[in-house]
Amino acid sequence: MEYEGTTQTAIDNLNQAVTVYQDLRHENVINFVEKINTEDGIALVFDWFDGKCLFAHWTFDKWNRYTHPNSPYYKYRRLSLEKRLKSINTIFQFLSFVEQQNYVAVDFYDGSILYDFNNDRTQICDIDFFRKKPTVNDIGENFWGPKRFKSPEEYTLGAPIDSITNVYTMAVLLFGLIGGEADRSFEKWEGSKELYELVCKATLPERELRFQSIKNFYKEWELSTKNCKNRTN
Questions:
Q1: Which residues contact 10 (CB under 8 A, 6 or more apart)?
Q2: Tens digit of pLDDT for each residue in 181-204?
Q3: 176: how many CB neighbours lie within 10 A of its CB?
Q4: Domain 49-232's class?
């Protein structure tokens, strides 16, 4: 209802998305079933996943995301840290797979995360704009993605969009799931100091100072999580 583009552009984008969902078929992603052609356009069909979106912007006029008990984000933040760390592993595993498939996540944010509160399962959705590598920012400052998640290169025309960019994106997501979101102070962080330092490194504006791949970021994350558990046990 709020779409401002042309019908043909929408059709082209959906056709492109079919390839993405086929190439990135994974247990942690909503399952693409089929494409349906009609006289007026096309539709993509997915298996139902009984999860709630962590950035359900269509309900913000009904309740506050941070304080209302019906808000999925509010409910998620009140899960135990252990459950959220398990959920985070699911996201890391998927982004590692994306990297292995020579893709880069584009327009990936908390609105791409679904959580099933009854079964404590996490699924990824809305990966339509993921791209094959190599790719660059071909739009400029209005490159795909919410401003709160975008790395410096996602504002710069011609800048590389790659695994290093995804490291930044994942780290911003982590600040939202177990930290203070926009407030990136340690006081708002619920994990260990080790994990906090990893996420701070991953969000450095200088690309060369971040982790150079999701694989390396996830490896350090797992190691620090394990060390923390060993110390508490």
A1: 3, 41
A2: 999 999 999 999 999 999 999 999
A3: 20
A4: mainly alpha
Confidence of residue 62 (pLDDT cuts 50, 70, 90): low
113-116 and 121-124: which strand pairing? Answer: antiparallel
In three-state secondary structure terms, 193 is helix
- Other beta carbons within 10 angstroms of residue 103's beta carbon come to 21
- What DSSP string runs through 36-70? EEETTEEEEEE-----EETT-GGGTTTS-TTT-TT
Q: What is the pLDDT of residues 33-57, one digit of tens each?
A: 999 998 888 999 999 999 999 998 7
Q: Give the side-chain half-sphere CA count within 13 A for 94.
A: 25
Dump strand ranges (E) for 72-199: 103-104, 113-116, 121-124, 131-132
What angle in degrees, to the nearest 10, is found between the helix axes of 81-100 and 163-178? 170
